[in-house]
Structure formats: C-alpha cells, structure tokens
Request: fold
Amino acid sequence: MSLPDLDPNSSLTLRKAAMRDVNVMLELIAFWAKKGVMLPKTTDVMFTQIRDFYLLETQDGGIAGTVGLHVLWHDLGEVRSLAIHPNFQGQGLGRQLVLGVEAEARGLGIPRLFAWTLEPDFFVRCGYTLISIDELPPKVYKEYNKSAMMKAIGVA
Reply:
C-alpha cells in the first residue's frame, strides 16, 4: 500500500477528525498494519468512533498523523490508533499526539489511560508501564494479543 507523498517540512494543524477523513485515516493505519506494527481498523469502526479522533493535517490537506481517545469508563480511557505518516517519523509527533489525548482525558476527569500496542517501547518512552490484562476491566481485554500499557495521568 502506498501513501500520498507529503512534504515533511509542511506546517501542521491539529484538528478533530471528520467523516471526510475516514478513508485517508484507514489508509494510514493500514500502511502500518501491513508492516505488522499496528492492527487495522474497519470502516464501520472508524465511522462510529470518528468523534474519538484527532488529526495532524498538512497545509495542503494531507494527513500526517492520527490518534484517538476512547472513553471506556469513569476512570479509564484508551489511546487508539496512533499513526504517523512515514514522511513525518522521528519528529516527536507521536509523543505530541499522546500528550494531547492525555490532556483531554485529564480535562474530562479520567485518571488512567491505557493502550494496546505492538510497539511497547514507544509507550514506555511516553511514561506508560506494561501491565497484565488482569488489571483491566473484563470488557476491555477482548483484544489481548498485544501488550497493554498503562499510565496514571491524574485529573484536572
């Protein structure tokens, strides 16, 4: 799968995702899924959960990155589908997106975030700790084929 060639020097804007973005988001996620570093998302999941997602958009409308914050319970949220376009790798954008959803979770009063990941080292660098799935509510660990990472972020 090939992605559109984006200018890595383009200025970026963070914004909420919209329905018009779903196909491009799915392409970016599928690109990394084919490389075995994340799981793919389905079109129906993306449409029903679009309100969870943020994008980094280039000045010409390209998608440089995406991340979702999914609220699971009063005290637990999930960092979802973090993906950065290959032209923007190594610039700290993934970390910035994670910090952004942490700030949103804090503002909502959610004290803990977790992430299912095939790249646990990235989340360790962001302050997350590898946990046992037993530390998650039963409704959450249906996808236990990845590493579960947790971080207590406090609340505002």
